[in-house]
Amino acid sequence: MSEHRGSGFLPTDYTDDTDSQNNKQNNLECDRRSGADPSAESVKSVGAVDGAGMERRDALKAIAAATGLPILANTLAAQAPAAPRQAAAAPAHGGPRGTPTDPDLLHPKANWPRKLSAHELATLAVLCDTIIPADAKSPAASAVGVPAYINEYVSAPYDGQMRDLIRVRGGLAWLNTESVGRFGRPFNRLNADERTRICDDICYLPNAKPEFHAAARFFDLVRDLTATGFYTTDAGMRDLQYIGNVALPRFTDPPPEVLKQLGLA
Q1: How many angstroms separate the Cα of 145 from the Cα of each of 135, 185, 222, 231?
Q2: pLDDT single digits (tens) 159-196
Q3: Of 195, 188, 191, 203, which Cα lies nearest the Cα of 123?
């Protein structure tokens, strides 16, 4: 019999089961011959205490308990109700950040410095008014802030706008050079007829002379920006008789004459 006291609950008898059974049969045979009661020996062996001070029955219970604990723990963990999840904190809503990709339209602010100089803006304002002049229905383009809009657009720190800035600056310089060459004065000091004569040469790229192609591309860009800036203002919408962006108290059916014209009457 070996000693395993340091292992706590382990039994100290690690003899082979076959030898143990043979020894037990021999002992019972001797007891029978000597007249001893085998049942008493059986009871005694069940309650016997080994050298480590632990009954074999207790040792077997301990081994069974140790073997079953992990399985029992896993089973209990699987059956236990899941802990309630804590809801993720909702992000604080602070409104638009005022950045170029999340602008605050109610409190706009300049997000980049404006690039066009005062001299360039003076030339640009006259060109915008040549494209959309004042008439009986609406003001001129410069009166509703179109040059400032174009300045903001071409000053934006994006690739497309930076390319447009180069074209606008080059075109404004060409306008003044061409004006001085033809009439001896910069573009913003020409009269309406003189300005129109220059613009007629660059207002339509397919008809422009080769030497005016670059200037025609510049004019095309400024014309588009001028129209965009002007017709998105209240004055421009009134000029177009656009009645959108207005809350309607009720929505009525189209007039009968309209339905008849469409073949829906």
Answers
A1: 17, 25, 14, 11
A2: 999 999 999 999 999 999 999 999 999 999 999 999 99
A3: 188
- Tens of pLDDT, residues 203-242: 999 999 999 999 999 999 999 999 999 999 999 999 998 8
How many domains is the chain built from?
2
Q: Do 20 and 134 reside in the same domain of the chain? A: no
174, part of any domain: yes
Look at residues 225, 245, 55, 73 and name the one whose alpha carbon lies nearest to residue 148.
225
Q: Does residue 186 form part of some domain?
A: yes
Q: Is the backbone of residue 55 left (phi > 0), alpha (psi -120 to 50) or beta?
A: beta
Q: What is the mean pLDDT of residues 33-62?
A: 52
Confidence label for 102 from pLDDT (cuts 50, 70 and 90): confident
Residues 65 and 124 in one domain: no
User: Is-contact 236 138, C-beta < 8 A?
Assistant: yes
Query: Do 48 and 130 fall within a single domain?
Result: no
Domain span at residue 135 reads 118-240
Structure tokens at 36: 């001893």
- Output the pTM of the full model: 0.56
